[in-house]
Amino acid sequence: MIREDVAKIINEELYGAYPVEFGEIARNNTAMDSYVKKLLETFNRNKFSYEDVRDGIRRLVEGDDGKWKPSINLIVKYAKEEQSKRLRREGVNTRRIVTEDEEMYNLYLNEMKKEPSKRNEWLIQRCLPSAKIMNDAEAYKKKYGKSREENERY
After folding, report:
1. 95 within domain boundaries
2. CA–CA separation, 101 vs 132, rounded Å?
3. What's the number of domains the chain is made of?
4. Are 95 and 69 in contact, with CB atoms under 8 Å apart?
């Protein structure tokens, strides 16, 4: 986010919704520069986009918290919610898909942790092919087309 975006948010969104409270800031260049600087630091620290903040302020104004001049913390709270919605739509913070072989390999490892007398041998035999694929880089690449490091980034 850049300085012009923050000034636009103050002039269009905040001043439009709260003309009395933000009128002095919008008319006074020194106050405006100070407020823009403070908001810019906060927004960049949280990696908000212009749309996150704009939509957050709009939701804030429409909700119960919008009756009075919002604090920076309240603006950040609503912007975080909007950022989270945007990231979910873009699929950024989604969990990766766990493969069948990975699941079977985890079952195999859990069984192998147990004492030999308490292990389920039938389950171990069923999981052995997946364990081989998960431990052999060539077999994994042959089945999934990518190495395990590329496929499972986290």
Report:
1. no
2. 9
3. 2
4. no
Contact in structure between 127 and 104 (CB atoms under 8 Å) = yes
Final residue belonging to a domain, choices 90, 108, 124: 90
For residue 13, the tally of other CB atoms under 10 A from its CB is 20
Q: Domain range holding 49?
A: 3-90
- 2 to 20, 48, 133: CA distances (angstroms): 26, 11, 49
Q: What pLDDT, in 10s, does the model give residues 6-36? A: 999 999 999 999 999 898 888 888 999 999 9
Report how far residue 39's alpha carbon sits from residue 72's, in angstroms, rounded to the nearest whole number.
7
d(CA 141, CA 134): 10
User: Where would I find the H helices in the chain?
Assistant: 3-8, 15-17, 19-27, 29-45, 50-62, 72-90, 100-113, 121-135, 137-144, 148-151
Same-domain check for residues 77 and 51:
yes
Q: Can you give the pLDDT at residue 120? A: 94
CB 127 within 8 A of CB 106: no
pTM over 0.85: no
